[in-house]
Design goal:
The protein contains 20 helices and eleven strands. It is α/β, with parallel strands linked by helices and 432 residues long. The longest helix has 23 residues, at 145-167.
């Protein structure tokens, strides 16, 4: 496919993601499914350029505007998107400048050939000059202003800079070996036979990293339930929980069950896990995944069913609340989230999180644990939620998580009484 056509497809996809508010990965999958004519090379270019531009959108947009000059005001949104994509392609991805003729077909008027030539000549040296430190930080790290200020306030300028630099990198592909069916060494050997080299993750005892990107869902090892795709940080949450085989566990926000299935493996298919969610479609997906994984101690229930079950009062050893959150710890995987998440979403999420804690507290048996987790980096959704809940409910008290972390060799991840993971420190998604 010609470069101008590839870039035109990428522009269409980028604008669709920017305007829809839906997750980028699902929109990219849908985009490719409806365009069967795209070859593997074309798909790779479109996907990598789209994700890369989403990660670096603000700085690429600003550099593009600097290189275009005053003419930017007469360009359409589609034309500005082409310049932003080309800025990523050259300045961030390190590709050579294209020929003017490769870009002109994407513009409405032939007279814009001169504009394209000027842009390409100025792009290598284009700069963004902003005197305000916070504003410069937001553009350099391609964040909305409100999120940049919040991260600087919580982590300091240097710490936030290191964190945000890591959030703009591509996350590794991690697998969790399913201990119900195999072990790490056996799974690695099987994957190698199927042409996939892997190596063990540094922190999770059941984690593998896949250096080479390919369709792992076609592998026999996947069809046999030997592994699940799961970030190493998400795996460590299950390792930290370390539920005992005889325990009763409520996974109250189970979703499609990535952590649920890990808990089932840790419990060796004994005890009982009630996996609940408000969306039946997610539980149907979990049911399929559990069957493939051989997880027989998991019962799926809609949240309304759980809430109406009197027999669950004071019943569970652990109530695990992996609550809906901003997802700021997963921006490496979901770069489009930066542009759909709004500042006003945070207090709304906080209210929802406190409500979930409130409505599930009576399921914890005396001496049991309520385990609160998010994939957010923000204090508003983490310490503030827990502290507000504890202020309201004196029958609950914070547990020193250091003991649990020490028992599972995770004590280095504990700070200020909480278990925390950061992309720039641990190489995982961000978790609290």
């Amino acid at each position: 496919m010609q470069f101008s056509s590839l870039l035109g497809h990428t522009r269409e996809l980028l604008l669709q993601i920017r305007s829809s508010g839906k997750p980028a990965d699902s929109l990219i999958d849908s985009f490719f499914r409806s365009r069967k004519y795209l070859g593997s090379h074309d798909r790779r270019f479109i996907a990598e350029t789209t994700y890369g531009t989403l990660r670096h959108f603000r700085v690429c947009e600003a550099l593009a505007q600097s290189a275009i000059g005053d003419s930017v005001t007469v360009l359409s949104e589609e034309e500005r998107a082409v310049f932003t994509l080309m800025t990523y392609h050259v300045r961030k991805a390190g590709n050579p400048l294209p020929e003017t003729a490769d870009l002109v077909p994407l513009f409405q008027a032939e007279k814009q050939r001169e504009l394209v030539e000027g842009f390409l000549s100025r792009l290598p040296e284009a700069k963004v000059s902003i005197s305000d430190p916070a504003g410069r930080f937001a553009i350099e790290h391609s964040l909305p202003d409100w999120l940049a200020k919040k991260l600087i306030g919580e982590f300091g300028l240097e710490g936030a800079g290191n964190l945000c630099a890591s959030l703009n990198t591509q996350a590794p592909l991690n697998l969790r070996v399913n201990a119900l069916k195999t072990n790490v060494a056996e799974c690695m050997n099987q994957l190698k036979k199927e042409g996939l080299e892997t190596h063990q993750t540094p922190h999770s005892p059941v984690g593998l990293t896949v250096p080479k990107r390919l369709n792992i869902f076609r592998l026999q090892a996947f069809r046999d339930g030997w592994f699940e795709v799961q970030d190493e940080g998400s795996q460590l949450v299950g390792v930290l929980l370390d539920p005992k085989p005889a325990w009763k566990v409520l996974d109250a926000c189970a979703g499609a069950g990535g952590k649920t299935l890990h808990l089932a493996a840790i419990m060796k298919n004994r005890g009982e896990i009630v996996a609940a969610d408000v969306h039946d479609v997610r539980l149907r997906e979990l049911r399929k995944r559990a069957a493939r994984a051989g997880a027989s101690n998991v019962r799926m229930m809609l949240t309304d069913e759980v809430m109406s079950r009197d027999s669950f009062n004071n019943f569970f050893d652990i109530v695990f609340l992996d609550v809906p959150c901003s997802g700021t710890g997963t921006l490496r995987r979901n770069p489009g989230l930066k542009w759909t998440l709004k500042e006003l979403d945070i207090p709304e999420l906080k209210e929802k999180q406190i409500h979930i804690m409130e409505s599930h507290r009576h399921f914890v048996k005396p001496g049991g644990l309520m385990f609160y987790a998010t994939c957010s980096l923000l204090k508003d959704e983490n310490e503030d939620v827990v502290n507000e809940f504890l202020e309201r409910h004196h029958d609950f008290s914070p547990v020193d998580i250091s003991g649990y972390a020490r028992r599972t060799d995770l004590e280095n991840f504990v700070s200020n009484g909480a278990f925390r993971l950061f992309p720039h420190v641990h190489g995982t998604d961000g978790f609290f």
